[in-house]
Amino acid sequence: MAWIMLFFAGLLEIVWASAMKLSAGFTRPLASAVTLAAMLGSFALLALAMRQLPLGTAYMIWTGIGALGAFVVGIVMLGESVSAIRLIAAALILCGIALMKLASP
């Protein structure tokens, strides 16, 4: 159950990071509200997952899901650039997440 909570915490991190970008510095009320609600949910689920998972594992996977997801949202929805170096960096983050999961009890 902790892994499921951690996964959804990571998805909510993608939501709040994307909504924060769309909030234009918290000047747009709806995007700002989505940012704050998703942050609260993400942190709450992370805290619950950390009851059973080690800090380093939980935090690394949470931030990794958020980083990769924000990277994809930036490219797909916001028209950010794609380059070989950026794709390699994203692949390395994914490898780190997978290795951390494999190394966890």
UniProtKB/TrEMBL annotation:
Example of a GO cellular component annotation carried by this entry: plasma membrane
InterPro entries on file: EmrE-like, Small_drug/metabolite_transptr, Small_multidrug_res
Subcellular location: Cell membrane
Coiled coil spans: none
Transmembrane segments: 33-50, 57-78, 84-103
Pfam family, one: Multi_Drug_Res
Signal sequence, start to end: none
Gene3D superfamilies named among the record's database cross-references: 1.10.3730.20
Membrane topology of the entry: Multi-pass membrane protein
Keyword Transmembrane: yes
BP terms from Gene Ontology: xenobiotic detoxification by transmembrane export across the plasma membrane
Keyword terms of this UniProt record: Cell membrane, Membrane, Transmembrane, Transmembrane helix, Transport
MF (Gene Ontology): transmembrane transporter activity
Similarity comment text for this entry: Belongs to the drug/metabolite transporter (DMT) superfamily. Small multidrug resistance (SMR) (TC 2.A.7.1) family. Gdx/SugE subfamily.
UniProt name for this protein: Guanidinium exporter
Lineage: Bacteria, Pseudomonadati, Pseudomonadota, Alphaproteobacteria, Sphingomonadales
